[in-house]
Queue: 4 jobs
Job 1
Amino acid sequence: MKKVVLDMDTGVDDALAIVLAMNAPELDVVAITTVAGNVSVEKCTRNSLLLTEILQPDDPPPVAEGASTPLVKQLVTAPEVHGPDGLGGELGTLPTPSRPRLEVPAHEVLTALPRECPGEITLVATGPLTNVARALREDRTGMALCERLVIMGGAFGVPGNTGPVAEFNFYVDPEAAQIVMDSGLDITLVPLDVTTATILTREVLEGYRGTGGDAKRRPGRDLGAILYRALDYYIRYQLKESGLDAGYMHDPLAVASVIEPSIVTATTGRVEVVPGGKDRGRSFAHPPGPGGPEVRIATSVDARTFARLLGRGVLSPTFGL
């Protein structure tokens, strides 16, 4: 089993990524760290604690809370996409987790675990890169002991999802994104260019729904009800925004590419992130060569294989079909 740490701003698609990772026989989720993004970091932590203890009640992975604000910018959140609580509902409609978060801050966890297991940790980052940048600033040697980083972020040949040109995670903390892109670590970037080719349609969701039940009811600790309500909200937002009766599986694709690396093909390049102005968060891929470290950038995806992994790891076990 491959040891993974998930660093995320736990909204709807991050929640699916957690379920996919924890249900994958190929992966061992050793910790989750949270960062402000889709919602506040406190809500991200609550969501992560709740999901992990439902999925693995006997021995859930620890959850550490991270940055509450970006390195430089003011925080931008997306409750219109993920709901006020990050999981498609109003505050107070989900139960309180039964265990506390770690006392150690997220960026320290991100450097301590690779030191404990050098060369064995894959970090999957699906939110703004604030925690990762802080970890690099404070202990680059520890971060360099990760086997690799898989990052959901950026948009190159497709429109952004936060304004016309920027992907949300890079927009929220462009300074952190640039620090990470310049780190020289082994990085695979999973941008909107491939995540927007992986969708979960309303039709497929309803086919799997099973115990999902009424999206309006109080879901309690029923994982099917929690995820159905979250996905219902997420898909309704996309339908209103673009006419697409489906939700983009941005963050689950990042996890899927660790489960089955051949699911994406990639090119190599240097990534530049615009820090501010009208193009804030915009990402550019420059050809390999002098000028800075290179990363792998996913350019295509096997959507059929992804759908199989999502069905196997999330939809079937969650909705009982």
Job 2
Amino acid sequence: MSTPLVDPFAPFGALLSGFEGLYELERIRRGMFVHATAPRPDVGVTPHVIVHEQDKLKLRYYAPKRDEGLPPVVLVPSLINRAYILDLEADRSMVASLAGMNHPVYLVDWGEPGPEDADEDVAYVVLELLDRAVRRACRHARAPKAAVFGYCMGGTLVAMYAALRPERLLGFTTLNAPVHFAEAGRFREFVSPDVVNVDEVFPAGTLVPTWLMKPVFQMLDPMGSFTKYAAIEEAAADPKKLSRTMARERWLEEHVPCASAFCREFVRHAYQEDALIAGRWSLNGETVRLEDIRSPALIVVCKRDFIAPSRSGLPLFERIQSADKELVEPDAGHIGVVVGATGPRYFFPLLDRWLRRIAKGEPQAPKE
């Protein structure tokens, strides 16, 4: 039988709490202990089947509650985080919500690369892995085209895909997807050319380890650890609230290594050269021009996003030439929009309405 963990700071709790100005420190201490000892809940539990596999990628299919003949919806998360962010909790799950609204949902789970995947570059990810996943979803759903949704870096990849393979798309949505990396905020400062030599930091034939990537994300919000522990201490009084908090913590803790070829190309062309917005990024000889995009588009940027600031995503709406395009700017953060109450209350119904409209070929409502 395992010995229960003992809080080594417990004897000092009363002392710390007794001094004015140290109460918050005591809360952080208690939150750190809860964080270290609280169990992580199960995640990614919505029933599904895997309908396609390639390399480490798995395409997960979530059947609609009722078959309305709606086109497939392919969800594309970031390559460097776990895909279950879109299926974190049953009552706030994006895949469960859309399937419950009768959409056939397909989640691209990029998986965890191994050393054998180290040379997979952006072209391979977009034109091979993503393209095959979209085509497989269409075949499985017996539909000619799919609606594709991209979140964060996944949205950047979807925008590139929309520019190069528009024939596969009924329409596409991006959520907090940077395209103008000169406006990408603090992260761009961390990987600027005078700070990072991509050839040295991401040598060929290797994987970028999680221990290297994790501190960079932590530095985006230097005070975040302190406020996080205080929030965990507060949540500890409510089992449901604590479970929600620890589900999010599990996702934040479970980083994914990345192929050095992908990271080297993405950091250089995106963050250091801002080549996507300039039209100077080519995949296998095909130049990506955002101005070539004419598919129906829903562009979503969150006002309180400090990971991918809205000013880095807004130019996508401005550059694309789609006759049918909408811009939505919810008052939410980068993660909270898909795992918080904003998802089921506002964002998922919004996406449902947009998907149904483009499926029916209905025109965009006139602007007021």
Job 3
Amino acid sequence: MNVLTFTDRGIYCPAGDFHIDPWRPVPRALLTHGHSDHARGGMDTYLSTDLAAPVIRHRLGPIRLDTIRYGEPRQIGGAKVSFHPAGHVPGSAQIRVEVGGEVWVVSGDYKVVDDGLSTPWEPVRCHAFISECTFGLPVFRWTPQEELRDQVNGWWAQNASEGRFSLLGAYSLGKAQRVMHLLDPSIGPILTHGAVEAVTQVLRDQGMPLPPTTRVTPDLDLKAHAGAMVIATPSALNSTWARKFGNASTAVASGWMALRGIRRRRGTDRGFVMSDHADWPGLNEAIRATGAEKVFVTHGYTAAFRRWLEEQGYDAGIVSTDYAGEEVLAHDEAPKDIIDEDAPGGAVA
């Protein structure tokens, strides 16, 4: 039984007559989270977790949005639906769909490491699992959380001691707040780009444990904030906005920093290996934990990861989607000839 089908509008459930993270207008959309490639405007109605709703409303404006709690069952037509923690960003969910005793799970985006802000990922048993594989090669292995904390604060402290600003590029939803959560505010003040501050305030209003930050505005006295950490969108690092800080060291927090040469091509001084997507061990751990026999992979190193899954005995397929998420936007920068001894069959991307 095909509980879900794959259409030109997105992942569709015929029994419930709804789409999951559709990229074209549909009557009923179930959303895994608030990133712009998964939560798009133009749908008649929306359903998301109560924790994801504030950011979704912030980004999409006045929409018809209903909410659901993690683990709460809901009957939609002939389908039984529930949302479960994905650990990707605050409020993110995997969506479980059951029809006639057959269970399929759409992961959205996920990570298995507890970042201290998002509700931690939990496995959901199913017959079929639709998994992202943004970082589906063995070269992608993330820096442990505590080590990452030491790296970021050490870089900031060194810059501050020398009177330099620390400009760090991180996506406005998820990554930026995760960086903030790692910071030691005793080092100095924390400044934010407007796009980062807007989302941060939405999450802070929900009770997220985030340190005080100051939005960078044209009238902000930067001399009074010398040595500050400045969290900006990655695209702002090479802009006129960034040049106003003068004496500054720049860095990017991204899973792509695991690849040789990416930091150099980004033109930054430092790169921190950090992602809100699952790394290679995380992908494999998550898929095993579902107990699924059939696995569909989306966006990322789909061909190599599917081959790997088939070698492990899974019935694996590739699903073409229109997802090109906050972190996936950098995918075109990834070298096409990454070879790793431990890759599937010595495979390449």
Job 4
Amino acid sequence: MTTTQHDGFATGWYVIATADDLGAQAVLPLRYFGRSLVAFRGASGAARVLDAHCPHLGADLGVGGTVVEDTIRCPFHAWRFDGDGQCVDIPYARSPKIPARACVRAWPVRERNGLVFVWYDGLGRAPSYEIPVIEEHGSPEWTGWTVSKMTIRTQPREIIENVADKGHFPTVHGTHIDEFDNEFVDHMAVQRSAGVAYPRGGGSDRFRLTATYYGPAYQVTVMDSLLPNRLINAHTPIDAHSLHLRFGVMLKRVGPDDKMARYTEAYIHNLQSGFAEDVQVWENKAWRDRPTLCDGDGAIGALRRWYRQFYPAAGAMPGAAAQQEGTT
């Protein structure tokens, strides 16, 4: 089990569901950031996320709650809450006036690229950056997302450190790296690499990719390989010691649907195998705040400095400083 020097959770956008997870009139109970949440989609079609526990007598709106028009109705006493978290109806109240404290926290939500995001900030600040649109999403020339989700006993810094950790690819994944570099600009951390992957099922795949984290928890990879693809890698903390890792793939169509389905299945299997190799390390390693590094370890120090900006207590890191490479 790893530990971190940072308290709480990083500020940023986090994936909490796919659009398909949250269908029309759906209610989805969630557990993230050490608290219970509920996502629902009302008559307007907009995705909403609220703190889950009713302010009345504490029932979980996500467990037995139902959508009524553009509100969610509590399963205990039928109090109804709108997408802003305000109670708008108490069916048995003798007075039409709603108690001032009859409200729950509403979370900022974005639905983009077939994913549902919430904004987390321990100080309650508004979003400071946006999630970019993936142009290929929804194109008939590309498959839709195939998304898998893993529960991992680790903390987010272990996941994001792969951005700069060139040295683990040949050892853990058997991948040969020819080119590798990093760039850190504002809320973005970029990895550019090229080489040859050797899937565990056999064969080889020469690739070139640009993988970009937008904030601390959502990465998009543009990869040219045997099958051009787009990947997402999104990790969301359940609590201080575990997280959900979602990874998804879209492939450029090169044949009929049945052929693409087989390609996608094989590609997802290779991704799952690769992440399983990482998970074995993540769940058993000890976090080093001050690791002993060598001159071939690259931009691990720069990545860590960039990451600090997402913790309010650490203060904002100037962009120029975050781009300087070094070790901690």
